From TrEMBL:
<keyword id="KW-0732">Signal</keyword>
<dbReference type="GO" id="GO:0043448">
    <property type="term" value="P:alkane catabolic process"/>
</dbReference>
<feature type="signal peptide">
    <location>
        <begin position="1"/>
        <end position="22"/>
    </location>
</feature>
<dbReference type="InterPro" id="IPR005297">
    <property type="entry name" value="Lipoprotein_repeat"/>
</dbReference>
<dbReference type="InterPro" id="IPR047910">
    <property type="entry name" value="SCO0930-like"/>
</dbReference>
<protein>
    <recommendedName>
        <fullName>Lipoprotein</fullName>
    </recommendedName>
</protein>
<dbReference type="Pfam" id="PF03640">
    <property type="entry name" value="Lipoprotein_15"/>
</dbReference>
<feature type="region of interest" description="Disordered">
    <location>
        <begin position="191"/>
        <end position="220"/>
    </location>
</feature>
Length: 337
């Protein structure tokens, strides 16, 4: 009897550790959700990773090495879909889909884009491969690429080549901020990230930098769009479709999308309620994920975007694996399409 009780308590503790918000008002699943036409056929024969999308990559996530035998920090793999994270040290910074901070180097140039970090420098500051997508808070027009000396393509933000830092070992680390007076985290507009003057620390920008011609500020918040197949559905500040993952739960609020899954299904970062239009604010709460990132929820359900959506209006994630679906303005799964 004692063993059974101990096991139960351990299970409860494990669940509590996965969620920082006791978000109620619904169970861990929704009764009556129907799969859209073709979803059953899509799910049939799919492997364990099919729910993530077939092209999320193979082992190229945040844990990938960048060349040195003892390195355990930032990887050299694709960034997936970029996001914005708030940090105590540098204010808002750009992160990859694993939550690792991206940086820029003062000795590089943005006009024209050129990287001057190679050899040992590139081991300490692994270049971020081109091809990342922008999530809410980052203007997609700021993203580009530059050819490096070895022929590979590197991601640029507002013209500045982007890097990770070897000593950042987990989501939320900003250990590279101000290193050598030349390395700074990338702010959402491509400038050097810097905490407001009153906060101190972190290495502020030496001088204001002009925004590239044609760049526009990213939208904020969540709103509602209409799609011929989906009807009214939630989109992020850049007009990208927002999704839910059926294995997640609302009570307790838990995200089951981790690791490689996040490279294909980036979390929607916390959103100011003032920037929300047409979406229910009932249980509009934030999930503190075990990886250190914060994720917005709608009616207690964690929400995501899809790296396979390339432009506003795309809904390529709808029905993937029979587990990913767009979200109605009330926070429900949209399973009919």
């Amino acid at each position: 009897m004692g063993i059974k009780r101990g096991s139960t308590l351990a299970a409860v503790a494990a669940v509590v550790a996965l969620t920082a918000t006791a978000c109620g008002g619904g169970g861990g699943s929704e009764a009556g959700s129907a799969k859209p036409a073709g979803a059953a056929a899509q799910a049939a024969g799919a492997g364990a990773d099919s729910a993530y999308g077939s092209d999320y990559g193979s082992g190229a996530g945040a844990g990938s090495g960048y060349g040195s035998a003892g390195d355990t920090g930032a990887g050299s793999g694709p960034a997936g879909q970029l996001a914005v994270a708030e940090t105590d040290k540098a204010g808002p910074v750009i992160t990859d889909s694993a939550g690792l901070t991206l940086y820029r180097f003062d000795k590089d140039t943005a006009e024209p884009p050129k990287s001057n970090c190679d050899g040992d420098c590139a081991k300490a500051w692994p270049p971020v491969p081109a091809g990342a997508g922008a999530a809410s808070g980052i203007d997609p027009k700021l993203l580009g690429e530059v050819a490096r000396g070895d022929g590979t393509k590197q991601l640029t933000v507002a013209g500045w080549p982007a890097y990770r830092y070897a000593k950042d070992t987990k989501a939320g680390d900003v250990n590279g901020q101000g290193v050598g007076g030349t390395w700074f985290a990338l702010a959402p507009d491509g400038k050097k990230a810097a905490k407001p003057a009153a906060g101190g620390g972190g290495g502020a920008p030496a001088s204001p930098e002009p925004k590239p011609e044609g760049a526009q500020p990213a939208q904020a918040g969540l709103s509602v769009a209409t799609n011929p197949k989906l009807g009214e559905h939630v989109v992020d500040g850049n007009g990208m479709t927002v999704y839910r993952f059926k294995p997640d739960s609302a009570w307790p609020m838990v995200s089951k999308c981790t690791g490689d899954c996040l490279a294909k299904w980036p979390v929607v970062p916390p959103v100011d309620k003032a920037g929300v239009k047409g979406v229910t604010l009932k249980n509009f709460s934030v999930l503190d994920r075990p990886d250190g990132r914060k994720q917005q929820s709608i009616d207690c359900w964690p929400v995501y975007t899809f790296a396979g959506d390339k432009k506003p209006g795309d809904a390529n994630g709808q029905g993937v694996g029979g587990q990913w679906y767009a979200v109605s303005p009330e926070g429900k799964l949209i399973t009919a399409s």
